[in-house]
Amino acid sequence: MAAAMATAAREQTPTIDEPVYVATAAVYLREHRLAYNPEHPPLGKLLIAAGVAAAGPRLDTSFTGDQGAAGRHLLYESGNDPWRLMLWARLPVIALTLLFGLVVFAFARDLAGPAGGLVALALYAFSPDLIAHGSLATLDVPAAGSVLTSAWLLWRARRRPGLYVPLAGAALGAAVATKMNALPAVPVLLALTVVAVRPARGDRPPGEGLGRRAARIRGAAVAAGWAAVAAAAMAAVVWASYLAVDPRLRRPYAGPVPAVHGVRAALVGLMPFPAAYRDGMRIQFGLEGRPWQGFLFGHAYTGSRWYYLPAALLVKTPLGMLALWAAGAAVLLTVRRLRRAAPYVLAPPAVLLAAAMHSSRDFGTRYALFLPMFLAVAAATVVAAGRTRRALAAAGVLTACVAISSVRAYPFYLPYANEAFGGPARTHLLLHDSNVDWGQDLGRLAGRLRSRYPGERVWLVYKGSGVPSFYGVHAADPRAAPPGDVHGLLVVSDSAAAKATGRLAELIASSRAVDEVGHSITLYRR
Asked: What is the pTM of this model?
């Protein structure tokens, strides 16, 4: 997994979101201001900042553009080497992704022993989605892994609440201090805190002379107290992440913050977090109200589809992994001795998936990266439940199938699709955006044009944050020229082609596909 992620980090150009996070991290380091990207809390960007600090980029403190322009300015207009800067920015996320793999192993070993732990670790390490997004300077893996870590620590808190409950609260705080879409997990994990500490306190009587009702009241009070400890630890981490950036907690963000009303306003008001965090929640609610475009199974649409994420996961998850996920969930729910673990392994991802399915942004399986983490742990229980050579052999064969499917996709993990849907070469016909084409192959495109098409006229429609001319791609926009003048190579990002209308759709329809780059960019002859 480390080798695959390192290769991706070294070869891929910046994806759409990464320049914003890298520029924000650089501003955190040099200016200690919360000036950019207020819609996401700072902790994940502070992680990225560790790599940015090692790279030591030049930062233009006089720049006054928006966050997208700030990212491009830092990478391409300030005298920095974007290849080097992006590699360093990605390395801390790679390291954290590997550490979360050890959490998966430990959690699964607690439930199913060493053999189950190895099955879970193999599923995690060969997950195409986790390799793809764990190699990027983005926030999805850090947030999902922090939720998983909190659930595992609560499982362990059943025996040692004094040690593990505060740690679980801190891990939950790390999740919500990284991405706000982790907030639906908060009530679930606080409820699991109550569940976890009751067995730990139930081994000895609460005191002589107390009736059964008094004992229950005391037990509930103790459990509520531990939940309060977890909540306090969570809030402390969120506050600390903002204070680490700006000890004065200024609110320098100059953009508009939308007003929210009703239930959303009440939720914002209940958050025991800094004002900047609550502003970010308002911005996220505003983004949810926009008419975003989606693309699923060849159909472009405006708005969202509640079944988008399950359908996308069906395409982008290895078949053996899907089988082991389903079997593991069934085992947790039906085998008596493992049923106690079901709420810790299944409840957090179920709630997070329900919340993500309700979102208005159908942009990719990166919004559900908690599933390959939690369900790898669930899959381990297949080994514990069977305890026969046949069960071990079946789990081993399915895990080997996952490994083979994953290795076959190397090094193109972002556009992965399983064999039932035609593999990575056909993902762009089914899905778009971060499922397949997130701007990551601009550098590979430059190499392809130099090696196979030197001197040819190039027309380019690129969806991404990179600057084509920096990589040696000198092209014109075909949408700005009369169709009769567009001759030569027409190069189109697959996400742009998926939603093409008008002039671009006509140009593609009257051209012939001759090549592709990274399963994310198609070259047409015209």
From this structure: 0.94
